[in-house]
Specification:
184 residues; alpha/beta; five-stranded parallel beta sheet; 5 strands
């Protein structure tokens, strides 16, 4: 039987409420505002998935995740954060998170990942960890590269509308700000 209980741990009330509303049709949501409260709830009733913020007061998300792993090494966890710090992203994947979302994020993509994680067979959630770390981090990096490439293509398309000489002058630093209202 699939455990459709999701525990959302974030110190920001608005984030907890937004994610709860986004997931309410597909699963049962419980929320906590600290790592300590989340750990207590996990001990009482193991959820099918945890959504965990990194930057929490008291016990931060990485420390909370380490404690969750002691209780259940295969507990699916999605990490969220308002900051893209490589050391935290890497630490999260080393501890076996299934995905990492940087706020603000696409709620439809987030919901898709949550539902996909919840619908996996139970044996798919138990693995040796090493492949998950590598593939999860690789997937995260691939998403970031794809986004950067898409942004680059959009910039190139926007620049096509300008005269080539004008673009060359901008790139060479020959265009100066002519706004007379700004101090030089």
């Amino acid at each position: 039987m699939i455990n459709k209980n999701v525990l959302i741990i974030d110190d920001e009330c608005g984030v907890r409420e937004s994610l709860s509303v986004a997931l309410q049709n597909d699963c049962r949501v419980t929320t906590a505002e600290s790592g300590e409260e989340g750990l207590k709830l996990i001990k009482e009733n193991l959820p099918g998935l945890v959504v965990l913020d990194i930057n929490l007061p008291g016990m931060d998300g990485i420390e909370a995740l380490r404690n969750f792993r002691i209780i259940d090494a295969s507990l699916p966890v999605i990490m969220i954060s308002g900051m893209e710090e490589i050391k935290n992203i890497a630490a999260s994947f080393r501890l076996g998170v299934i995905d990492f979302f940087c706020k603000p994020f696409n709620i439809n993509e987030f919901s898709r990942v949550v539902n996909q994680a919840l619908s996996k067979e139970e044996e798919a959630n138990t693995n040796n960890g090493e492949n998950t770390v590598s593939s999860g981090l690789d997937d995260f990096i691939e998403k970031k590269v794809d986004t950067a490439l898409q942004d680059n293509l959009e910039l190139k398309d926007a620049l096509k509308s300008f005269d080539d000489q004008f673009v060359d002058e901008i790139l060479n630093g020959n265009i100066r700000n002519t706004n007379k209202n700004r101090p030089s």
